[in-house]
Amino acid sequence: MRFQRFAVAAATASFLLVGLGVASPAQSAGPQVVPGESGIVAIKVPANQKGAYPLYGLKSAALVYVEPVERGFTRHIAMYGTDKVPAKVGPIRSLRETDFYLLDQFGKVRVYASGHTLSRKVMLDLLADTDHVLRIADDGAQEIYNGTKCVSPFCHFLNGNSVPGRGTGLSESNLNIIKAAGLLVGDLPAAVKSKGKPVRSVTVNFKKIPYSEYIPRQIIWEPSKKLWLYEASGRADTKDLVNGKWVTSKTRSATAIIQFTTAKNAGNSYVCRSFPLGGPVSVPYANTVGAGKGLLLRDGKVFDITWSRSDRSKTTSYKLSNGSKVRVSGQPWIFVVPTNITSTSITYASGNRQILKPQTSSPKWTFSTTVLKERKACEAPVKIEVVKSGSKATIRVKTNFDTLGFVSLKGAKVSVKIWGKGTVAKSTSTKTGDLVITGDPSKITSVTFEGQVVSKQTYAPAAWRK
After folding, report:
1. What is the rounded distance in angstroms from the CA atom of residue 110 to the CA atom of residue 257?
2. pLDDT digit string (tens) for 271-287?
3. pTM for this prediction
4. pLDDT for 394-432, tens place per residue?
């Protein structure tokens, strides 16, 4: 395989396009091949939202990743050999922190995306530490065009015929792309086949952070087609070029892998500042370096597997119950599923339903170092919650700084004003984060958190008033 790695530094998005050897519109009539490219093209494609469908060109991909983004949605990363990118792929959407480490195992990948995520310093820092050739619609990538009869922001599409390197021998094969993902193609060992359980469907619900609502993805076995149908919020419409004609179909695959991991808060846009335009407060970063458990779905059955990856530049190792490598058929779809923001259930062929509570994976959070470095320079957000019940009140100082949801800050120092007793200094429990005040809870008139450094991070002042 042609995978190579060398250091790239970048300071701005426009520099990235020119500095990495990709010609800008002012320099050339078209984009150029960059030395060291692996012959693999990765394209970000949305899911869930009605305006994004139908999705174009997914069936030509060697494999497809499904990863979480904000608001409980997911997005796809479709992986192609350079010569296999169809005439129309998309709509194209923006990158997230999860993408960089996920793609690093494929060498120097040509990545197509849209949006303004590179306005964030944290994203630029991460990109500067990677090898990939990034082509962004908003920065003038000529291969990306505006579609017609589309719903904004789902109007950017890739013209696959314009991807540089086509017909030059650069293109990587589907088989090698699948191998680079850590998978083999072929039948399962007989000893493993017997352990599979027939399945009707698997449902993965992603939490709509910071709300309690969950947004469903369903993976449904279709016996007549011997394929898994993938629905995001009930949507699955696709259009693909088959023998020169555009064919309407659904998102289906012969193999699906669920890779259980965990996610951290990669920052609301922008870390400690408010997310613009009323957007979400948390963007999940799902780690793909470390180790954990998972599921293999193929041939109408489910099999337990494990995954491990020691370093961002290393290939993921997916293993079956007998210790051998996971084997797939057709186009595999790999679902990156953080257990701390999802719930997963299986409905077996018998009709029995099982709620899965897999053990937390042990990811290596080296990737978050850059994120945390920027965070250290600002105050983490805090809110105070007072729950009154009977003859006591429970006080919690809560933050969503690093947890994708509000959790109690342990060891937080507060001032509690109690009518008839004045103001008393207290601290929340270092074990639970709760501070319990006994007596008449109605006499608590205010709680103040003056701001404090906890585990080397500064948390912002906050107050609660009756």
Report:
1. 24
2. 454 444 434 457 788 98
3. 0.81
4. 999 998 776 777 889 999 999 999 998 899 999 999 999
Among candidate residues 328, 177, 331, 187, the one with its CA nearest the CA of residue 251: 331
Dist CA 219 CA 230 (whole Å): 5
The highest-level CATH class for domain 379-465 is mainly beta
- Whether the CB-CB separation of 90 and 115 falls below 8 Å is answered with no
With contact defined as beta carbons under 8 Å apart, do 4 and 108 qualify?
A: yes
Dist CA 139 CA 311 (whole Å): 31
Query: Which amino acid type is present at position 337?
Result: V
Q: What is the dihedral of CA 61, 255, 71, 308, to 10 degrees?
A: -100
With beta carbons less than 8 A apart as the criterion, state whether 256 and 335 touch. Answer: yes
Tokens read off for 155: 């109007």
Supply the CATH classification number for the domain 13-356: 3.50.90.10
User: Do the domains spanning 13-356 and 379-465 agree at the CATH topology level?
Assistant: no
Domain boundaries, the chain: 13-356, 379-465
- Cβ-contact 309, 290 below 8 angstroms: yes
